[in-house]
Amino acid sequence: MEIQLKEDVILKIYEVGYLLLSPLSDEKLAEEVAFIKGQIQSSGVIVTEEVPRLRPLAYFVIKALAGQNKKYDNAYFGWIKFEMDAPAVLLLKEALEKRENVIRFLIIKTVRENTLLVPKLSYTPRTDTGKLVRKVAGVGEQKSGEIKTPISEEELDKTIAELVIE
């Protein structure tokens, strides 16, 4: 999606996902988020966002702080979807690279629409008796011309025994 304001300025929709250090206090976390939002709002418009939440990481991430490498196995993850022109996105990238409390970030081009996956509700029809009915394709369906007759328990046991022996 592109919006053209002037002849040479084209705004595109981007999303930045970021990981912030886990030992941050609530005040410091709020400062970092405010900094990121301020950078975006200085030359763009925020479309939507998710507040950072502490999450476990799939693997250790190493960040160099004060000349030492430190490992982190959890971090605050948040994202912001915004509208901005391409040169301003490069400035945002440079600003985020310089932040000590930002472990990693990723900026992608996206669309304005909501792209979050919401689990679908499953529907299971009920019969008049209130019992659940689950249909599996090909199971319980009659073939044309086939007439079903009830089978006795003896015949059923005999058939099972034959199948087990084979």
Sum up the overall morphology in one term.
elongated
| Secondary-structure content class | alpha+beta
Task: State the share of residues found in helices, binned by percent.
Answer: 25-40%
The CATH class assignment of the domain at 2-109 is: Alpha Beta
Sketch the topology as an H/E string, one letter per element.
Answer: EEHEEHEH
- CATH homologous superfamily grouping of the domain at 2-109: Ribosomal protein S6/Translation elongation factor EF1B
Model description:
The chain is an alpha+beta fold and 166 residues long. The chain has a domain at 2-109: Alpha-Beta Plaits (2-Layer Sandwich), CATH 3.30.70.60. It is built from three helices and five strands, in the order ββαββαβα. Strands 1, 2, 3, 4 and 5 form a five-stranded antiparallel sheet that branches. Strand 1 (2-4) and strand 2 (10-21) form a beta hairpin. Helix 1 runs antiparallel to helix 2. The protein is elongated, with a radius of gyration of 29 Å. The model has no long low-confidence stretch (mean pLDDT 82).
Which short descriptors sum up this protein?
Alpha-Beta Plaits, alpha+beta, five-stranded antiparallel sheet, elongated, 166 residues
SSE order and pairing:
Layout: E1 2-4, E2 10-21, H1 26-43, E3 44-65, E4 68-85, H2 86-97, E5 102-109, H3 153-165
Antiparallel strand pairs: 1-2, 2-4, 2-5, 3-4
Helix pairs in contact: 1-2
Short description:
One of its GO terms (cellular component) is ribosome. Belongs to the bacterial ribosomal protein bS6 family. This protein has 166 residues and is of the alpha+beta class.
